[in-house]
């Protein structure tokens, strides 16, 4: 059944065999037998005990008892929608990705927006990062752009991710507070982690309390690679630019809304799509040729850095439109499994150590969250591209593989798929040259933690800066441990003295004397940014 005014696409039509409509049908049990009475259990007499024989009671209660699955370990609270993506003109000179070749081609997408720290039932208006995850159902398989509404991240290495999340989640003894940031463990961690300085500036800014999912930017954060037909690689950063503009609410408004309508963003997205006001974003890319990898004052592999748009402009190359609400929240939004490792030929990874860790994490967590190795067969997750391989069996297997064999190499045949040459769309990893020692260390090019934090602060208008001062003062004012507050003032003083002074004043603290040994390990820029010539899309 087509929702009024909401277009279908190849993916939403492909899911049709899985849709169920009860209206006008007889009620039946899971084995198909029709149910005559769904309200009275089978009893030994009108006032007697229920009988174990009652298979209808047992089935209904058993299914109910098993209705819940674990929420996502992060990004538990979210909302999703279907839509389409179209590139404006071929990007063939940059990437061989099929969905970026043809302006006529419409690629179905499913998008899930989320907060990060709160649980599934938490308020939409928390001060937090927002997830912006897009699944493209391309003809070459699913490509997931699993991004956030902030262009950078807290940490430079995935090994720290469990620590970050343990610090930001409610404290373990009393499960307080729900709020993302306002507590000792979070600020303790941040105050000991100077590399989070840039991200914390974004988190204390208005960006952390969006007006609507429809009015947020999105970012792939990491530097990725585009690979073209000739096998040439260019670095690429992905952006989403909302056509409604970027808008936030003020902190007091956020508090008010959280109290009156904790589903504010979810409702806003749903209602907009129901009413036909389909939200749109343009896909933006920043492209850097391989040869320019080391021309910046920061490292392209460092996920705590942006490439300033003054150096490499964002070029708008396509449009995403969300035009259809899910039929069922659990089946679609909750069971959607995004993974930064879902790529197609023409898109590849870099050695960003945060990205590298994410490449492991998503499938691993989905194996437990979605109950085993076959979650890719769930309708919302299965690709439009055909799937043929030698993986077999496991809990809840839906596919009925035919043939006698499931191994490779194989001379007997019978249900055995061939490996695809690159010309037939077989994925080949970019043959980046790697030569190094096996070592647990970080490059010095990752050591400048404050320049871009300062750049961000200075890019804010005066009212926006005042909001940030208020946010720091409020959040740190909740921290009970005075040493943590002091360490944060020390970090802020590395970013901007006036910011540090204003927050210190609000907290009745003083700014630490300059020890002459800044926390900053800044390296000099080896290129004049003004001379930098970006590549054209
Ligand atoms: C979930 C983004 C870093 C592990 C998510 C989601 C987004 C996201 C948008 C929600 C996906 C959904 O809607 O279902 C990001 C970004 C990161 C980042 C932009 C940094 C740039 C990491 C790291 C790890 C990680 C470093 C682990 C090493 C997870 C896990 C989930 C998740 C386990 C839950 C997935 C699920 O249960 O389906 N992330 N994340 N993330 N992320 Fe990340």
TrEMBL record:
Active-site positions, per UniProt?
75, 148
Which catalytic reaction applies to this protein? 2 H2O2 = O2 + 2 H2O
Any idea which positions bind heme? 72, 112, 161, 358, 362, 369
Instruction: Drop me one GO molecular function for this one.
Output: heme binding
- Source domain of life: Bacteria
Report the transmembrane regions from the record. Answer: none
Keyword line: Heme, Hydrogen peroxide, Iron, Metal-binding, Oxidoreductase, Peroxidase
Point to the regions of Basic and acidic residues compositional bias: 11-22
- Name the Enzyme Commission number(s) assigned to this protein: 1.11.1.6
**Where can the 3'-histidyl-3-tyrosine (His-Tyr) cross-link be found?**
339-362
Give the GO cellular component terms, alphabetically: cytosol
GO process annotations (BP): hydrogen peroxide catabolic process; response to oxidative stress
UniProt feature coiled coil, ranges: none
The cofactors named for this UniProt entry are:
heme
Q: Which residues form the Catalase core domain?
A: 28-416
Say if the entry is tagged with keyword Magnesium: no
Similarity comment text for this entry: Belongs to the catalase family. HPII subfamily.
What does the UniProt function comment say about this protein?
Decomposes hydrogen peroxide into water and oxygen; serves to protect cells from the toxic effects of hydrogen peroxide.
Q: Supply the name of the protein.
A: Catalase
Q: Which residues of the full protein are shown?
A: 18 to 554 of 738
